[in-house]
Structures are given as C-alpha cells and as structure tokens.
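Hi support team,

I've been running sequence recovery on a batch of backbones for a student project. Most finish fine, but this one hangs at about 90% for roughly twenty minutes before it completes. I'm not sure whether the input is malformed or the queue is just slow. I've pasted the structure tokens below so you can try to reproduce it. Let me know if you need the job ID as well.

Thanks,
M.K.
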C-alpha cells in the first residue's frame, strides 16, 4: 500500500526543527470533545509545540479526519485553519484553550458562516522522565519502515506488508504523486531484515546490521550524545514556495541549506525531549551509513540523529544530507507488537 508522499514530506520537514529541554517551554497534547454550534458534535486531537498547533478533528458519525494547523500564544489564544482531503482550506477556528476547556468560534472559508465552539478536555499525554521513558521501552526493535525525501520532489518508501517488504519511489508534481515500484535485491532484503535496535536493561541503545553493532549509545541521565563538530552547509540553495499539503499547509520560503544549519544550531548536549521524541544522539561522522545503504536510501549522508518516539513507541534513525534537502528515516518497532 502507498501512503501519501506529501505526508512523508511533512513529517520529515517537521523533524528538522528539534530544540532543547525535557519539558517543552510551550507544549501540550490533548484530546477534546465538544460541539460546533448546537448540531455538530466532534472529537479533536490537538498538539502545541512552541506555539505551533497541529492536529485533526472528526465529526460524530463520520470516518474522515479534518486536519488542523495554526498558532497559539502563551495565554492560550489561538487561530487555526482546517483543511480538506485535497489540502484546501475549509474553515478557521479562533478562540482560547484554558485549563481543560476550548472555547471560541468556527468560520467557513468564505466567511459567510460563523458558529460558536465549546469543548472539554478528555485526555492528555504527559511526558515522564528520561529514565521512565527508556525503562518502559526496553526490548529489541525490528526495522518496520524506511521513508525518505529528496529535492526537489522525490519521495521513496519501503515498508513491511504481511511480513514482506515493498518499496516504491514517487515524484510529486502539481500536488499529485506518480508512483513507481522499486525492485529490492536479495542483498537489500537481507539488510532490511537484519537491522535491529536494542535497548538493554542498562538503558544503552545499540544499532545492529547483519549481526554487527554499528552504533552504541550509553545511557546518561540528562541530555544527549552530541557529536556535531563541523558546519553542514553545502552551499546549494533550494527554495520551495508552493504549499505542501498533506491536509496541513507547509510553506518553505528560505533556502533549505539554511534550514539544515538552523536545525543543527538548536541541538546541543542538553537536548532531551522535543515534540514527543526523546533524542539520544546527533552525530556528523556517518561511518556506518554504507552498511545501511541499498536501493531504498540516497548515499549522500551528512548527519544522523537517533530518537525514541514517546507516543508512537518507535526508535527513529534519521540520516540527512549536508544541504538539508534530503533525508531518510529508518523506523524500528518493538518485536511482538
């Protein structure tokens, strides 16, 4: 099955904005239930990371989610747009999140309809300490998927489907993806099946390929293993000005090599949890990249980050090129789940 290429682009671009701190300066991830007007009941999943809102909501009795993207200030006052399945803006929410309530208004895209919104919090994701997170994550993780993007519009993906690997490549043009299957060699399949991440009882993390340990990260109570010692700016400028819509609108208006450099400036030895990812390592000496390479990975790699997704419960190894335009995520899921 092919998952939308632009959704992969959105995820990878969002991972280029990590910063520091165990608890985000401005962060919440809550679910709400409420009504728009007196007729339209809904449930909503909403995340705030440093003032940027993302999420979705669904009307009662409907199957499809409506995606949300917007901004919120420290007082809780927000504005967020909603987007249909084709990426078009269909309405705007304005209001305030205070404690366990969300109140405000909804307006149609044309502004000819306006309805009050009233919702209450039904649950919230709370991030524990680093030791608590990793203690619950002890185990062996098998590679589950490989997703990547390359400038200006290439997307590649490999994933397990009923125990077998599938792989494809797509080019996105005018909001549409043209997909081609990729033939994986026996060597590719062997390498994919042999990749594991192990978190042992000492809370040390190891990446292995074909039985060989390529990367070992010892546990430390605070911060991450930070080994960035050189600038990663290839001087190649890519500028993307059109929206990238996977239900959420993204506008990239600066050269992407600057995006990469800015991202590295936000990482530091003190970085721990950001946007529900526990960061374990950032490194610019990628001597093990060839051992992970195949028809599913660009060979141009400059930086690696290793993180654990607290909510998704996956280990993610992200290989990026020096200009910040291309990147590939290897996602590992615990065996038996």
């Amino acid at each position: 099955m092919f998952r939308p290429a632009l959704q992969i682009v959105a995820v990878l671009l969002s991972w280029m904005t990590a910063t520091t701190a165990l608890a985000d300066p401005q962060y919440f991830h809550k679910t709400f239930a409420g009504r728009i007007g007196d007729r339209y009941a809904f449930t909503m999943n909403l995340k705030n990371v440093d003032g940027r809102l993302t999420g979705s909501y669904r009307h009662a009795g409907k199957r499809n989610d409506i995606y949300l993207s917007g901004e919120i200030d420290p007082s809780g006052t927000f504005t967020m747009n909603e987007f249909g399945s084709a990426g078009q803006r269909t309405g705007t929410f304005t209001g305030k999140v205070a404690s366990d309530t969300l109140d405000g208004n909804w307006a149609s895209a044309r502004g000819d309809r306006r309805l009050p919104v009233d919702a209450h919090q039904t649950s919230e994701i709370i991030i524990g300490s680093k030791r608590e997170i990793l203690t619950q994550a002890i185990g062996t993780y098998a590679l589950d998927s490989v997703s990547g993007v390359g400038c200006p519009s290439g997307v590649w993906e490999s994933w397990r489907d009923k125990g077998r690997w599938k792989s494809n490549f797509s080019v996105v043009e005018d909001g549409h993806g043209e997909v081609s299957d990729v033939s994986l060699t026996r060597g590719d399949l062997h390498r994919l099946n042999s990749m594991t991440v192990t978190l042992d009882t000492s809370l040390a993390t190891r990446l292995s390929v074909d039985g060989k340990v390529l990367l070992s990260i010892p546990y430390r109570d605070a911060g991450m293993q930070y080994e960035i010692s050189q600038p990663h700016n290839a001087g190649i400028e890519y500028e993307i000005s059109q929206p990238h819509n996977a239900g959420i609108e993204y506008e990239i208006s600066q050269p992407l090599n600057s995006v990469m450099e800015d991202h590295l400036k936000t990482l530091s030895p003190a970085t721990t949890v950001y946007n529900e990812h526990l960061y374990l390592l950032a490194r610019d000496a990628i001597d093990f990249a060839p051992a992970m390479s195949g028809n599913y990975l660009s060979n141009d790699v400059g930086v690696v980050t290793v993180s654990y997704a607290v909510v998704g419960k996956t280990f993610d190894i992200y290989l990026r090129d020096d200009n910040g335009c291309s990147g590939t995520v290897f996602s590992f899921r615990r065996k038996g789940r």
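--
Follow-up from support: It reproduced on our side and the slowdown came from queue contention, not your input. The radius of gyration is 21 Å. No action needed from you.
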